[in-house]
Amino acid sequence: MYIAMNRFKVLKxxxxxxxxxxxxxxxxxxxxxxxxxxxxxxxxxxxxxxxxSSHTIWASQEDFLAWTKSEQFRAAxxxxxxxxxxxxxxxxxxxxxxxxxxxxPKLRG
Length: 109
Description:
Oligomer: single chain
CATH architecture: 2-Layer Sandwich
Helix content: 10-25%
Number of domains: 1
Order of helices and strands: EHEEHHE
Largest sheet: 4 strands, antiparallel
CATH class: Alpha Beta
C-alpha cells in the first residue's frame, strides 16, 4: 500500500471556503485503478493558518503515479488555480510506502 498526503496551510479566514472546495469537487478517484480511500483532515490552528492534509490510500505507488498522469486527475484539478488564494503557499507533498498495518480485530465483522 501507498499513502499520498498533501499538507496545506490554510488562511484562518478561508477555512470554510477551503473545505467547500473539497466537499463539492468531483474527484473521480473511484474511476482509477488502485484507489482505496481518501480523507480530508483538519489539524491544529497556528498563529496565521490552520493545518489541513489530504490523505489518500492506494494499492501501490505505481497506482498513485498513474493517477497523477490520468485524465481523471486533470479533470479533478482543472479549476485549482482559478480561486483567490486560500493557503499560504503551495501544498507540501509527502508519500509513504506502508510497512506495517495493525487492525483492531474487535472491529471486524
